[in-house]
Structure formats: C-alpha cells, structure tokens
Design a protein that fits this description.
Blueprint (H helix, E strand, L loop, with lengths): L4 H16 L1 E4 L4 E4 L11 E5 L4 H17 L6 E4 L6 H9 L33 H11 L5 H15 L1
Parallel strand pairs: 3-4
Antiparallel strand pairs: 1-2, 2-3
C-alpha cells in the first residue's frame, strides 16, 4: 500500500477492521467478516480489490458473492486497492446496489503551536465507556437508534 495520506487512512481502516473481524485473502481481494456483527458494513466487506477489466470485475463480484454466501453473511462494502477504482468496477458495483463514497484525507503541512488549556482534560474512551457509547449512538441521526446502538457495541468491543 502506498505511503501517502490516503494510504495511511486506508491502513488505519484496515487495522480497525482487524480488531473487529476475521480476514481471509481471496484471489482478487481480502474478505473481512464477523459472525458477531453480521449486519455491520464495517465488519463484512471486501477490501484491496484489484479488478480493472470487465472479466476481472465479473470474477471479483462472483468471488465475493460466493464467499460471503458460503459464510451466511452479506458483503456490504467494497474498497478497491489504491488506484484500482476502474470505471468497469465502479459501474458493476453501482449496478449491484452499492453507492460510491469518496474518502478525502487531509494532512498537516506543519504542526501547529498549541497552548495548554487548564480547562480541557482528555480522558481515554475506555475509561469513559458509557459516555463513549452515548456519543456513538448520537452520532448518525440518519440511522435507526437500534442500528446506532449495534454499531456502538462493536466499537466498544474494539476497545477491549
């Protein structure tokens, strides 16, 4: 994976997935999956997918569908390898019910000078488990309350 800002974000996401899921390398990508969280898109996805030509795209979709079906899970997210979001792959995923989500990453050009504040205290999320859970549940108003709680439980499990 490239040593770029976007590559760093992708590696961080990949590390997060490994705390929550199992992974298995397939021919055209890596399947991340979780029996504990079968309805969580972050926990059931196909990442680092390399499929540029029409034949490769069809093979990747077939491979993902077959593999997740064998596990009685549903692949809910795809993440192409850096530079591999080809037009045929993008079109095939949209045709199969996925929607495109673009991640922008920013990096500091220089580290800012920050003054210490006596009024600010940062506590680790693990020490504030209940408040962390409430914050996560309140974060995504577009999702149902029960799904937000479901996702928050997965994040809390990751802390352990």
């Amino acid at each position: 994976m490239e040593r770029t800002t976007v590559g760093s974000v992708l590696r961080t996401t990949q590390a997060w997935c490994l705390h929550l899921c199992e992974k298995e390398t397939l021919d055209l990508g890596i399947a991340y999956y979780s029996d504990r969280f079968p309805d969580l898109p972050e926990a059931n996805q196909y990442r680092e997918v390399i499929a540029t030509g029409t034949d490769q795209v069809a093979a990747a979709i077939e491979e993902s569908s077959r593999w997740f079906k064998e596990k009685s899970l549903k692949c809910q997210r795809w993440a192409p390898a850096i530079g591999e979001a080809s037009p045929p792959l993008e079109k095939a995923l949209i045709d199969n019910g996925f929607e495109k989500h673009v991640c922008n990453a920013f990096r500091l050009a220089r580290w800012p000078d920050l003054t210490r504040s006596e009024h600010l205290r940062i506590l680790p999320a693990r020490a504030m488990r209940d408040i962390f859970h409430k914050m996560l549940v309140a974060e995504s108003p577009s999702e149902s309350q029960s799904f937000r709680a479901y996702r928050a439980n997965a994040w809390i499990e990751r802390l352990d």
